[in-house]
Amino acid sequence: MPKVKNELLDSISQHIFYTLGKRVDTASTYDFYMALCYAVRDRMMELHLNQLNKSENTKQVAYLSAEFLIGPQLGNNLVNLGIQEEARQALEKYDLTLDEVLEKSEEPGLGNGGLGRLAACYMESLSTLEVPAIGYGIRYKFGIFKQVIADNQQYEVTDNWLHGGWPWELAYPADTRTVGFGGKVEHYTSATDGTYKSRWVPSQIVEGVPYDVLQVGYKNGCNKLRLWRADAKDIFDFGAFNQGDYLGSVEESVRSETISKVLYPNDGTDAGRQLRLKQQFFFVSCSIQDMLVSLTKRRVPVTDFPDYYTLQLNDTHPSIAVAELMRLLIDEHHLDWDTAWSVTSKSIAYTNHTLLPEALEKWDVSMFEELLPRHLEIIYEINERFLQVVRLKYPGDSEMLSKLSIICEDGNKSVRMAHLATVGSHHVNGVAVLHSELVKSQLMPEFYDLWPHKFENVTNGVTPRRWLKSCNQPLAEVLDNAVGPEWVTNMDILRKLEEQQDDSNLLEQIAETKLIGKHKLASYINNNLGVLVDPSSMFDVHVKRIHEYKRQHLKALEVVIQYLRIKNGADYVPRTVIFGGKAAPGYYMAKQIIHFINCLAEVINSDPDMEGKLKVVFLPNYSVKLGELVYPAADLSEQISTAGKEASGTGNMKFQMNGALTIGTLDGANVEIRDLVGEENFFLFGKNEEEIGKLQSDGYYPRNFLNHEIEEALNLIRVGHFSHGNQNIFSDLLENIINYDPFFVLADLEHYVSVQDTVSANWIDRENWYKKSLTNIARSGFFSSDRSIKDYCQKIWKIER
User: Fold this and answer.
1) Which is the catalytic residue, given 15, 454, 542, 654?
2) What does the DSSP 8-state code read for residue 480?
3) Model pTM greater than 0.85?
4) Does 635 share its domain with 732?
5) pLDDT higher for 46 or 733?
6) How far apart (Å, rounded) are the C-alpha atoms in residues 706 and 689?
7) Does one domain contain both 161 and 237?
8) 185 pLDDT higher than 60
9) Is there a catalytic annotation at residue 353?
10) Nearest CA-CA partner of 371 in 186, 179, 138, 183
11) Active site residue 550
């Protein structure tokens, strides 16, 4: 590690003077934040360049992901470099606290949910474990959106996170790559060898400008993210401008730059779907070109590509990599088909993150042909050759051909991107044991029957550096004293905590760290929402992307039932119920759920009968930065998705790592959490995946699951109690639950309420609660992203650390 103890103070003052053009005596807190960022980045750059020299000729992981939810960088980088205390001392010389400066940290708009956060955790672990890696994605100018709650509803406003510059990125315009769209394909016979060749002539050319963001490991290596910004090849049309067509002069620039403006444009329109496909191809093409150029510079033949790069596709978004690598190898590097296919299929692996059909992307063939005509040709050729393999395995089985084909013939022809990724990859992995089994038995049983050797499981993980040591320092210090500081990179050491589970002093320390976290979050809620919450109450937390299958409305209905119980005079263990998460702009029902939760909070928090018993809070614009406050404060982790719908989850792991107890279904990684902590330390409810499947096949009638309490709660909503008497506001939500209920809320609600009563009974015995909390922390080591990366290295990438 660089010796920084005596240098950081000077480095900060130099950056204020030379980089920011300010004097120390006139610099603002934000200036000190920027200067400290630059000073830290200098040290990271030294690590990175040293590592590059050592790993230039080794195999490298290329992690392709549509999002990287990396969160604020300064605090985590200080922890990983081991210079947090030096930074604190340096800032004290300027009469500033580290907390004041960290508060200025920007939340990068590079991701949205668990998929992007997983990618960020993996990049950090790759560096910590010194596995050479590069993450490839898009430099979104405006991220997804900033969520504002007004009139109890979600509104989306621009997240202009790059305004004023971002100190962690480094631009490399010399490494710009060009990407084509549209146009035509020309076929010709080579004059040199007489072979039949193809050439794509695009009608639009976009440039991809790379920005690198260093990702430092814990007192160890440093890899990078390479994020692409879209630019027009011809930024400004002087001819149009001089003729007075001022809008036309920048039309091409606007059209091209739109590609990297926003994460996940609304795909409810043809234009939105087209933009999504453009985004995916843009960053994939730039990234693969980047790798091939690197090989050329090193005078490595492209046929050796699999020896130098292993491409991991993070879900279906980068699946076009299969066709693009084939195109570049055949059309640009003139390999024959069989050689190019061998290189491609040995280089690519695919992670599936969902069982939901709508998330397994399919693109209309007509749109594909319009945007990527050469790639459609290649996909048809891949499919034709693949189906011949299927015919040999299943002679005369036309149904099997239809199920496995990359081209879906039902209705409008479409390209099945998950099928393309599976055919073109050497491995396909799920992200939890249950999920991986469902991929094999339900999602892709025909592929599994054809290629069982391709399918693996790698259960997700989260980095303990950010999600415990950095965000929950009081608990980290307790763990340092109890088992030694080595737990940060070897979470299995936490098992030693169980030897001390009867140590009342240790249990009190864990309880104290939880109370510190709750006071911090309570202060944030009061300062930002004007709601006073009691840190001594149970903090019952449901934070994640808002989606019907994650069932925030199940929790909300349970809250209504508890509200009625309190109104009827029942005793109640005091709770603060905390929600947070964003709904996709075009997802009507998810936005209805947000509206209902906020209306619920408005009524409950103003009802004097609820004082000291029940509060409801919705945290607007949930983010990594906010998560760093929430996870240390949570007592109860709500993981209540419909069984068989959540691939894994990572929030459940972060809560467990910070000592929260889980109430959940047998879904995703909940299954593994419960197996590890023991059924006595996990609050299980609801139907399992098999029972949900039987309900579905037999015919599900939600009304059959109504009881008196549930009917009373639904009626209270129906008559407008939570909507100022307006009986129409939540009619669609009620209709969805009572008559359709696609995610089996009513089927699980009665049991859920009953198990919540068990939770309350356990909370009363606080010493026993913290014994359970200690057990959860002690057994959370399996969910370190370090373990996940080791699994990838061994099972899929075949990389030596």
Assistant:
1) 654
2) H
3) yes
4) yes
5) 733
6) 21
7) yes
8) yes
9) yes
10) 183
11) yes
